[in-house]
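Protocol step 4 of 6: structure prediction from sequence.
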Amino acid sequence: QVRNRVLSLLLLLPLLLVACEEEGPDIRLNPPDDPESPADTTFSDSLNKLTDTTFVATNDTTAQPKRLLVEDFTAVRCNNCPKAANVIKALKASYGDTVIALGIHCNRNFSRPYEESKENYSLEKGQNIYEWFGRPRQPSGMLDRHAFPNKDEVVLSYQSWESLAPQRLDQKPGVNLYLQKNLSREAQKVRVTVRSRFLEPVSGTVFLSLMITEDNIEDVQLGPDQKRPDYEHNHVVRHIQTPARGLALTDNPAKGRVVIRTFTMPVKDKWKLPDLNIVAFAHRKNPKGPVLQTQKISVD
């Protein structure tokens, strides 16, 4: 009998071990970053898994040249908006690639396409950004979302951009941004890795915004005197990957903190590859940021 009991226990042992095996918790590598403004769900979140990391680098890194982000609230029915575009051209002529522009087509009344327009350039997230900054009169925009002395708002008249731009370009960036991309023409997607390295401690949460812009779009635009069918639209925001108010990147980063995030974004047939650019910028969520640094690379 004893022998039979021992044999029975031996036979039951594997079952007991399986029954008592403890299941681990469900670990999400990419939890929602901003419940108030969910990320774009065009592509599966699984495409971005297993690619994000953070660590502290001990070696010193020289600061990149400061880039100036110009966010231009524009629209096809805004007759003075081409004047703001001309100011951006002048800034680029003076400062070259250190000036990075975003043409955010917004204002639901002014951004409605004409019957002869080729398409609608307004994006819902672009409209959200415009509304977040108080639905300002157009044309207007922001320089690094910075609150300049003696200015009531971060949104500025285009007429002041040229005189204020040097103040931001003289600053040192709080973070270095590095962009890498891998374009898949067959899948019509571009995989983008954003590497942030903080050059100094930053208090609070730092956010990341990531977009695709397109240059050299010929389409209708209302001007000061008449409607032009062949107007050249530049730095038009085509896609906003992150939430409108940005994606939470890190909290209270110390000097040397490195954060790496990878995203997959669409590349639509109607967009011209040679004219597409990826723009990323690190910033505060508070409208009076300012933007810490901006970078741009071509999609193609």
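Step 5 (inspection) to follow. The chain has four helices and 15 strands.
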